[in-house]
Amino acid sequence: MIGIVEIIGEVVKEMEKDLTITYPSGEVVHGPCLKYIFGNAQYVKDKLDEYSQSDDEVKFPLVVLFCPVKESRNSSGYRSKASLNLVLACSSDREWSNEQRLEYSFKNILRPIYDRLLEVLNDTDGRFLINYDGNIPHDYQENFSYGRYGAYTESGEEVSEPIDAINIRSMELIIKNFSCR
């Protein structure tokens, strides 16, 4: 049996298909590689710092699943109900204005990733029980300040480079019971 961390990892891989983003350089990329990290804020920061040490490691665009994930496993009608906290992030520049962030990061990279996330969750081989007319309950926040002022862990350590991000909080997913085929 696979857990929620692996399930979201599979969702991220599926998101790469049929996704198109445009980098600030104007380069249009179809099917970009999305980096996936799960863990607490300190672990995510440490992984990004580790990736910064390597010239070969691609670290953005990034999908983060914050752990631990609370799952309710108290119904025979489904496997679990999970409340997820995610961040969708891309590299940014401290010198950009909010208007530039809106164009370069949010319109061209982050919003397309967010839209693709919702598409995949609504159509992932029936793995999720979507009772909301295609709307998955969650809170959504575009964070323009990380790129200019930095993103920090709970202990106050700054992420090694500026990012722009969409914060997704309390995303409610119901995971169906798995059946053997």
Description:
This protein is α+β, with helices and mostly antiparallel strands and 181 residues long. Helix content is 30%, strand content 27%. It has helices at residues 4-16, 41-52, 98-122, 145-149; strands spanning 20-22, 28-30, 35-39, 62-66, 70-72, 80-91, 139-143, 163-175. β5 and β6 form a beta hairpin. α1 packs across α3 (98-122).
Mean pLDDT over the full residue set:
88
Number of domains: 1
At the fold tier of CATH, the topology name is STM4215-like
> How do the helices and strands follow one another from N- to C-terminus?
HEEEHEEEHEHE
CATH class label: Alpha Beta
Number of helical regions: 4
Query: What spatial form do the alpha-carbon principal axes imply?
Result: globular
Beta-strand percentage range = 25-35%
Number of strands: 8
Structural class: alpha+beta
Helical percent range? 25-40%
Rg computed from alpha carbons, rounded to a whole number of angstroms: 17 Å
Give the CA-CA distance, first to last residue.
14 Å
| Unreliably modeled segments | none
CATH architecture: 2-Layer Sandwich
Structure, briefly:
The protein has 181 residues and is an alpha+beta fold. The protein has four helices and eight strands, in the order H-E-E-E-H-E-E-E-H-E-H-E. The chain has one domain: STM4215-like, CATH 3.30.2000.
Name the features.
181 residues; alpha+beta; STM4215-like; 6-stranded mixed β-sheet; two-stranded antiparallel ribbon; 4 helices; 8 strands
